[in-house]
Design brief:
The complex is a heterodimer. Helix content of chain A is about 90%, strand content about 0%. By secondary structure, chain A is mainly alpha-helical. Chain A is elongated and about 55 Å long. Chain B contains seven helices and no strands. In chain B, helix 2 runs antiparallel to helix 3. The chains are: A mainly alpha, B mainly alpha.
């Protein structure tokens, strides 16, 4: 299973489904952010498995970009969450 | 056999961590569950022999969630020195992992064969940097610009004061 990317792609599909379910089912904004993050991680894992399998530099660059965007998403999501919290306190 | 067992164990941990987000009620438990998920994913990157990405995963996600978990109880503490020491202690391991990843640490036998293109070019990190600064310069610059804009917007949102008339309103 680990000699080919199929196992990684199956895992990635399962993780994406769970992330989507968390995003739809849960109400707390921080948990919804975590759900989006799990879905994005699933895409990143698929890209990582494919880049290792197809020997392509572009895939590794794509994974780097995805991790960077994911970190930016965290920053913006937390800022919005904190701003919402401040507004509710006020 | 060891690689297959590691793959199965890490996959189960990743799925259980992601599934915990559905079932745990408290936010702290959800964050711990997410921490297990991203740590397992970093292990899977290591199995794929993508050491730099595994290190980035640990530094960005595991580090970020750990710091958040640490900061939540410490935010109530008035001692700035104590908070600084704890945050420094929490940051150091992630810095060490990042440096190890940049130094292209030996992760043992890869799950997938190392592509001959990468093996022929020697150090993956230096080759990656070369590719980023030549072939992929424009996407790299665009992502950097996006990061700067997002961080500036975040700072603006956090520093923005509410107008006097809005205070006390929902």
């Amino acid at each position: 299973m680990t000699d080919t990317p199929q196992g990684y792609l199956l895992l990635s599909a399962a993780l994406f489904a769970i992330g989507l379910a968390v995003t739809i089912v849960r109400k707390h904004p921080l948990v919804v952010l975590l759900g989006i993050e799990v879905a994005l991680q699933a895409v990143t894992l698929a890209a990582g498995a494919l880049t290792s399998s197809y020997q392509d530099w572009g895939g590794q660059i794509l994974v780097l970009v995805l991790i960077t965007i994911s970190a930016i998403e965290w920053a913006v999501g937390l800022a919005v969450y904190l701003a919402l919290g401040r507004r509710d306190v006020a | 056999v060891i690689i297959t067992v590691s793959f199965v164990a890490l996959s189960v941990l990743a799925l259980a961590g992601a599934g915990g987000l559905l079932f745990y009620r408290r936010v702290q438990h959800c964050m711990l569950s997410f921490l297990a998920c991203v740590a397992a994913l970093a292990g899977l990157y290591a199995l794929l022999n993508l050491g730099l990405l595994a290190a980035m995963q640990v530094a960005v996600h595991v580090g970020l969630v750990s710091l958040l978990l640490l900061e939540l109880p410490l935010a109530q503490s008035r001692s700035t020195a104590r908070r600084s020491v704890w945050l420094l202690a929490a940051t150091t391991p992630f810095l060490a992992v990042t440096i190890w990843g940049i130094a292209d640490g030996d992760l043992g036998e890869p799950a997938l064969a190392l592509p001959p293109v990468w093996a022929a070019r020697g150090n993956i990190v230096s080759s990656l940097g070369q590719q980023l600064s030549t072939v992929y310069l424009v996407p790299f610059a665009l992502v950097g610009l996006l990061a700067v804009v997002c961080i500036a917007s975040t700072a603006y949102v956090l520093c923005k004061r509410q107008p006097p008339g809005m205070e006390g309103r929902e």
